[in-house]
Write a structure and sequence with these properties.
The protein is α+β, with helices and mostly antiparallel strands. It folds into two domains: 47 residues, no CATH class; 53 residues, no CATH class. It is built from four helices and two strands. Strand 1 and strand 2 form a beta hairpin. 0% of the residues are buried.
């Protein structure tokens, strides 16, 4: 992950935590006094994690692009690599022959 993406993810996470606190009606000082964790507030607000939603939509878009038949991005030059359920990414494969080279 690039430094810019990490910074953006941190900003989204902090902003979303503030939004969830506002939805539940708890201020940051109340959260600290009650010793509440972000997960407890998220359970009360019934809001999904925005970073997981973004990741799922990116993977859906990638799958959509891969199903195209016009040769811009095909299964011949890409594969999905999964090291664990949380880390899924698309990587170009150099082992396969690329017809446009």
């Amino acid at each position: 992950m690039l430094a810019v993406e990490r910074l953006l993810a941190t900003n989204i996470r902090v902003t979303h935590a503030a939004l969830e606190r506002r939805l539940v009606g708890i201020s940051l000082s109340e959260q600290r006094q009650r010793n509440l964790h972000r997960e407890a507030i998220r359970a009360q607000s019934d809001v999904r994690d925005p970073l997981l939603v973004i990741k799922k939509k990116k993977l859906g878009w990638t799958g959509h692009i891969m199903r195209r038949n016009d040769g811009r991005w095909t299964r011949l030059n890409s594969r999905m690599v999964s090291h664990s359920p949380d880390t899924i990414c698309w990587k170009a494969t150099d082992e396969m022959e690329r017809p446009w080279r």
